[in-house]
Amino acid sequence: MISLDLCESRNTEEIPEEIMAKILFLFFVLLTVTHGIALINLSDEVILSELEDLDAEEGDEAEFFDLPKWETHRGNKILVNVDSFGAVGDGASDDTKAFVDAWKQACSTPKSVLLVPAGRFYLVNPTRFRGPCAGRLRVQIEGTIIAPDEPKNWDPKNPRIWLGFFNLTGALFQGGGVIDGSGSKWWAASCKKNKTNPCKAAPTALTIYASSGIKVKGLTIQNGQQMNFAISRSDSIRITGVKVSAPEDSPNTDGIHITESTNVVLQNSRIGTGDDCVSIVNASSNIKMKGIYCGPGHGISIGSLGKDNSVGIVTQVVLDNAFLRGTTNGLRIKTWQGGAGYVRAVRFQNVRMQDVSNPIIIDQFYCDSPKSCQNQTSAVEISEIVYRNVSGTSKSQKAIKFACSDNVPCSHIVLNNINLETRDGTAEVYCNSATGIGYGYIHPSAECLNSSDKKIEKMEAMLDESKEEYLIHTEL
Ligand SMILES: *[C@@H]1O[C@H](CO)[C@@H](O)[C@H](O)[C@H]1NC(C)=O
Ligand SMILES: *[C@@H]1O[C@H](CO)[C@@H](O)[C@H](O)[C@H]1NC(C)=O
Ligand SMILES: *[C@@H]1O[C@H](CO)[C@@H](O)[C@H](O)[C@H]1NC(C)=O
Ligand SMILES: *[C@@H]1O[C@H](CO)[C@@H](O)[C@H](O)[C@H]1NC(C)=O
Ligand SMILES: *[C@@H]1O[C@H](CO)[C@@H](O)[C@H](O)[C@H]1NC(C)=O
Ligand SMILES: *[C@@H]1O[C@H](CO)[C@@H](O)[C@H](O)[C@H]1NC(C)=O
């Protein structure tokens, strides 16, 4: 591989533009010669410098987990433009091969930038983009990537994947571009929309799988065939400033779905879909969400867990600073009867709600099935759940609902500074088999939660002292 240190200096203003342009030109020629292909054409020069500018703020960010540092200085980067690999970008031509070829090039080239240029629509079939890649890959999406819209012609080898990124270590996805699953025909074919249709799984628009040290910044993900964006079997993922949207009536279009993943941060993002804005499921822990707008949708959910007698474990989840508007649930934990495992150490705080149907809800009788579900003796155990500074309007009378199993009660629930009310002032709290404490202002009052359990006192002490350490390792 070639080494291209364009400029050691961090201050690009020290170099006259003219000289910079010459250096860049030489760089392009060298690249073209070395690779035997025109990776970069003339207008890319402009794009490259724009990309550098986009990057500028990265250096100000505190280091997070073990993510690699992103270079802020000019140079050292190799642009791989999908257009140079024959992508047409007219929304009708199949650009899959161009994307795959560009991926191969970018993935095998250290410090490369895979560019999807602005102003065009790239039709891409279901594709698995696989790592591991050479270091510091950046995927810069400025244009729109669209999925073929006909379920009948979908590649049967990828029933659950549209754009899947597998096995990456240290990659950045960013840009002002759009990933559009063109899901409308999938939604119409769903058994939720038309009871005569079979219940079949549909693809997820964007999937990050078996990866670590991934940042996703600024992208829009919309109209997912089913889920919009899934993080699966991954570690150290940071998602910032993304927008996820699908119509309110689109079935099962979860916004961001986190499964079997650890150390995930989701920040400053806006999600409105036909299902959960965020869903966190099995084998996930240390999940932090901050600055989330949710609506429409089914709220911020942990679960569902425990379906078909399975084991579900979710621990250490924090939601801080969120606004939910017009959602069918607010802060929800949902588990099926007959499951096993646990949900533990969860904190929801500084949440405002407007016209939310079930603002605070634990539902251990969750049953998203055409058939009704029987009560069973086992259940996913729920404990150490803190709700603090939660206020706003509830659309249902039971503004707070703790529906817990008789055999596996919910315990150590903490309410602190809660103010939820219906428009007509009749909000109430429902508890079944739930224990915990409340302190500070609590409306509607939650006497049904009152616990004589001595362990609660211990818990209160823990919450006041070491809770930050306990529930959350690093502040956002
Ligand atoms: C990830 O990459 C490693 C190393 O090449 C390989 O052994 C492993 O099978 C890959 N895993 C997946 C899920 O692709
Ligand atoms: C439901 O699906 C069936 C079979 O696919 C179709 O014949 C019927 O027209 C659909 N109904 C509606 C209301 O779309
Ligand atoms: C949940 O995760 C655990 C641990 O990874 C695993 O053993 C179990 O099979 C998972 N359950 C489901 C339903 O996938
Ligand atoms: C399951 O148990 C709950 C709590 O005791 C009860 O409210 C509900 O009616 C039961 N459901 C069924 C299907 O028996
Ligand atoms: C809860 O709200 C109060 C008053 O707005 C604020 O002082 C406090 O810091 C908040 N608590 C947390 C944990 O953010
Ligand atoms: C528990 O009961 C005490 C005494 O009746 C009351 O002051 C307190 O507000 C209750 N806690 C909750 C969470 O309602």
TrEMBL record:
Keywords: Cell wall, Cell wall biogenesis/degradation, Glycosidase, Hydrolase, Membrane, Repeat, Secreted, Signal, Transmembrane, Transmembrane helix. One of its GO terms (biological process) is carbohydrate metabolic process. The keyword Secreted applies. GO terms for molecular function: polygalacturonase activity. The chain crosses the membrane at residues 21-42. It comes from the Eukaryota. It catalyses: (1,4-alpha-D-galacturonosyl)n+m + H2O = (1,4-alpha-D-galacturonosyl)n + (1,4-alpha-D-galacturonosyl)m. Its EC number is 3.2.1.15. It holds the Pfam family Glyco_hydro_28. InterPro entries: Glyco_hydro_28, Pectin_lyas_fold, Pectin_lyase_fold/virulence. It is found in: Secreted, Cell wall. The active site is at residue 298. Belongs to the glycosyl hydrolase 28 family. This is endo-polygalacturonase. It comes from Nicotiana tabacum.
